[in-house]
Amino acid sequence: MTLARIKTWIAGEVLTASDLNGEFNNIIDNLSFALSSQFADGSVSVPSIAFINDTNTGAYLAGADQLELVAGGATAFRLIRLAAGTSFAQFARRGSVGERFYPPLTFGNPDDGLASTTAGTVDLIAGGRRVAQASSYVNATNYLVFTPGQTGTPAVLETGGGDTNVPLLLRAKGTGYVTASRFVFESFAATQSSVQAGRAYWHTIEGALHIDAGTLIARVPAMQGVMAGDLIQAAAVDGATSYTRLPASGEASLLRIKNAAPVYMAVGAASQYLKVATGGGDIIYGSAKTRIHFTDAASLATGTTTFIGPWADSATESNAFVQHLIPYPGRIRNLYAKLTTAPGANQDVKFTVRVNGASVFTTLTISGAAVSGSNRTDSAPVNPGDYVTIQATSSTGAAGTTLTGALELDDPS
User: Fold this and answer.
1) Residues in CB range of 332: below 8 A, 6 or more apart
2) pLDDT digit string (tens) for 319-354?
3) Is 142 in contact with 152 (CB distance < 8 Å)?
4) Are residues 400 and 328 part of one domain?
5) Could you tell me if 268 and 340 lie in one domain?
6) Does residue 121 fall inside a structural domain?
7) Residues 309 and 369 in one domain
8) 124/387 Cα distance (integer angstroms)
9) Are 217 and 314 in the same domain?
10) What domain count does the chain have?
11) Could you say which of 286, 303, 330 is where a domain stops?
12) pLDDT digits over 169-201, tens only?
């Protein structure tokens, strides 16, 4: 507002007290009028209080008890008085260009701050990209608590809220999954009864990892001081026990625990996964790739056929001790055989792999001066309860020999 003058002074004019008082009174009167004036409501594009050189930046009345600040014709934030008598600042929801966000509440950089992309959400924006989103839930009473840690202590992500026990659910989108790097199970000195189906925790009293599914289904103890060649005893839920020898590096191992239920379990470096399937009668823990070993310490006589067992013996095929019983579904492959003495010129020893009394492999023939051979081409499926026999046939005139060999048994693929 322009102040009005009451007198125009000229050079050399005498300034009287009344003139001076009149000038001051005029200034005071004009200021009082200007400061007591009321403005039009205005709008976001034409604010009531604006600037000569920037007419769409300033302030206007957005509604009853609502003062809105605008910049360039866009809302910056709004001051609102609630009915309860308290006031708050309301920021614009967000600004974005394509996938890049420009939050209304920023910290130093125009694309670092807080925004609300949709009603009931608050987004943390860094570098113009959404980093995290908090969303509302009707009548929610539980929430997340983030607590930093000082030197030597971990930062903590935990739950809080009105419930006595508040679980934490991590859920991936679509077919995605949750990955935990260098994960350590919590310590929990609980009894063996499960408190949460699907829970895994470290039992401090037993020094073992418990896995629950309504009831305790697995207990994995920590073993220290064991070495290759040591015997490990295992106890099953029905009280049966079994033993296994810890293998040296690269050697197959198998731990069998008697179980009346028709189920088996196999874990091993060859398969890299836990496998549970019906059929069998054993719970098997160890390598999913093992061997069927056969050997005969007695000399295989010339011109004879026999079946080789695992304990340095041989007999006819009907004898159970030369039948290698299969406890779980799998596939046999990679036949290897070795003789102590070569068959001799124009002579041979033939090996045939049979399942339940029927040949399933092409015959492996070791002849002449050779003392070993293999069939790494053929394979055949086997099922729980099947038996595998190794038939050895020496040609008439072949040198007598002891022998040994092995057949690989691995997963059904």
Assistant:
1) 292, 353, 355, 360, 379, 380, 382, 388, 407, 408, 409
2) 888 889 888 888 899 999 999 999 999 999 999 999
3) no
4) yes
5) no
6) yes
7) yes
8) 64
9) no
10) 4
11) 286
12) 888 899 888 887 776 666 655 444 445 566 677
Spell out the residues 6+ positions from residue 231 whose beta carbon is closer than 8 angstroms to its own.
243, 244, 245, 246
Q: CA–CA separation, 142 vs 165, rounded Å? A: 10
Q: Lowest-pLDDT range, 10-14, 141-145, 321-325?
A: 10-14
pTM of the model: 0.39
Q: Is residue 71 part of a domain?
A: no
- Would you place residue 85 in the very low, low, confident or very high pLDDT band (cuts 50, 70, 90)? low
Backbone angles phi, psi at 24, to 5 degrees: -65, -40
- Tell me the residue type at 19: D
Provide the residue range defining the domain that includes 356.
Answer: 290-410
Rounded CA-CA distance 234/256 in Å is: 8
Give the domain-ending residue among 286, 310, 330: 286
Residue 75, domain member (yes or no): no
Buried b (16+ CB within 10 A) or exposed e, 306-331: bbbbeeebbeeeeeeebbbebbbbbe
Strand blocks (E) in 4-51: 49-51
Residue 1 identity (one-letter amino acid)? M
Whether residues 355 and 401 fall in one domain:
yes
The string over 217-254, giving b where at least 16 C-beta atoms fall within 10 Å of a residue's C-beta and e elsewhere, is eeeeeeeeeeeeeeeeeeeeeeeeebebeeeeeeebbb
CA distance 110 to 338: 77
**How many whole angstroms from its chain centre is CA 273?**
14
Q: Are residues 263 and 310 in the same domain?
A: no
